[in-house]
Amino acid sequence: MTFVFNEREKCGSCPIRHRAICARCDEDELTLLEGMKSYQTFEAGQPIIWRGDDLTHFASLVSGIASLSRTLEDGRTQMVGLLLPSDFIGRPGRETVDFDVTAVTEVTLCRFQRRPFEDLVERVPHISQRMMEMALDELTAAREWMVLLGRKTAREKIATFLEMIVRRETVPTQSIQEYQLPLTREEIANFLGLTLETISRQLTSLKKDGVVEFIDRRHFRIKDLNALHLASGDDADGGVIV
Amino acid sequence: MTFVFNEREKCGSCPIRHRAICARCDEDELTLLEGMKSYQTFEAGQPIIWRGDDLTHFASLVSGIASLSRTLEDGRTQMVGLLLPSDFIGRPGRETVDFDVTAVTEVTLCRFQRRPFEDLVERVPHISQRMMEMALDELTAAREWMVLLGRKTAREKIATFLEMIVRRETVPTQSIQEYQLPLTREEIANFLGLTLETISRQLTSLKKDGVVEFIDRRHFRIKDLNALHLASGDDADGGVIV
DNA sequence: GAGCCGACTTGATCCAGATCAAAGTTCCCT
DNA sequence: AGGGAACTTTGATCTGGATCAAGTCGGCTC
Predict the structure, then answer these.
(1) In chain A, where are the structural domains located?
(2) What positions does the domain Cyclic nucleotide-binding occupy (chains A, B) (predicted)?
(3) Pick from A77, A135, A152: which is nearest to B139 by CB?
């Protein structure tokens, strides 16, 4: 019952079938995509594409996590997106890539050659409609992140980050309330616009305050969801009095 | 020869005809939009829509400048976008708005009622294709801004901001190299994730260093474009040795 | 043209988070 | 089982930008 990443595998049972750019496609359209796709796997840590590289393929991320980031000449790095399964890589109409894409864990991509795919986008409205939806969702997420980067304190940043993981219900490993940090302290720092030392200190502080609890470096439990939410700074909306 | 913002005016001669969501539309599709549109004008400073408000209309910004922002409960405000002519307001598929939209100057919108417009997006691929392009462009811009907010120094932020104005060739008022600041110091601060005092100090500093020159508070000239570019921090790419 | 208000500048001080510097930990790898 | 290397924590100190606090400038009203 597992899906094997092989070109002859049918798209119908693909794990991201209903969330990726093909989500709105019907069977016929899916067949077109099936004829074009190829899979590629990257080990954790490997670069997938570098800023400025020629974009030979578009791709959907099928499994794993990748990061989208930009590094200034002096080494300062800012992550601008976390790519999760079903997220799309590439910009129809552009020849090159604007940001560095790096595999955070082992990553598998479902790829399409640039020209044929661009033609398909013109011909199959279900694809551009879905890509518009996805781009608009990401735009909203990027803007929320801008608020975080521009105006939140270190503690609020980390609390927001943990809350995001919890909300996405990332890998409830064993018991329902055990979550995994998908990134190292340094990667979290690059995501939040902080230094790794500050990440470490703030995590310790949240632990001291009884908000979270660490099983090991990468696994945590929430001891006080309400306190976490309060610490995130973006109250106002879902006060969620459970 | 001026375009009057009147519902009976033809879209064909609209100032944003070739850049807005209708850019790819042919004459017939344009006629559909013509039948649906209505214009609305807001004075400078007026709120256009507030976060959480019901989205009754989608709109294209036809003239003027608007801001997209979020304010935390304690008053900290972060601007997350500047809307210029041809930019779109609203998210098909969503009932409410995620950010506050405010008129910075006098603003005129070309509006479409939500339901009929959503139906049109489903039926006219040229619209979703164009909206996808526009959303992806904005996404790239938002991500570049994330790098600025997360990793740049105050000086780099302002230099980047001025460079952006210069690059867009905003209102070369009289002589070719005179530019206008579209925002107050406080608005710039909210855009860059700084305080208005820091904006003021950094502008003074760039002036002292002979990079820019002020005609008055809102108008400036670039005295050393190369120095401005160097100060922006994102070299690497277009070193543009003119 | 006096008086006022909003936008801006400048100065003094403070502090959150950066930076510099050691120690721990954990997990490979041989 | 031992020796690193990578990751993480913790401590001491520094600093860029925030905050607090006067002023200044320019346009507008009466």
Answers:
(1) 11-149, 153-231
(2) 21-138
(3) A135
- Chain C nucleotides with an atom closer than 7 Å to a protein C-beta: 7-12, 16-21, 26-27
| CA separation, residue A17 to residues A11, A34, A85, A119, B100 (Å) | 7, 12, 10, 21, 34
CATH of A11-149, one of 2.60.40.1180, 2.30.30.370, 2.70.70.10, 2.60.120.10: 2.60.120.10
Residue B216 phi, psi (nearest 5): -145, -170
A187: nt with nearest C1' to CA: D7
Q: Identify the CA nearest to B39 among candidates B17, B69, B61.
A: B61
CATH of domain A153-231: 1.10.10.10
B149 contacts in A (CB within 8 Å)?
146, 149-150, 193
**pLDDT by position in tens, chain B (length 242):** 567 777 778 898 999 999 999 999 999 999 999 999 999 999 999 999 999 999 999 999 999 999 999 999 999 999 999 999 999 999 998 999 999 999 999 999 999 999 999 999 999 999 999 999 999 999 999 999 999 999 999 999 999 999 999 998 655 554 567 899 999 999 999 999 999 999 999 999 999 999 999 999 999 999 999 999 999 998 755 444 33
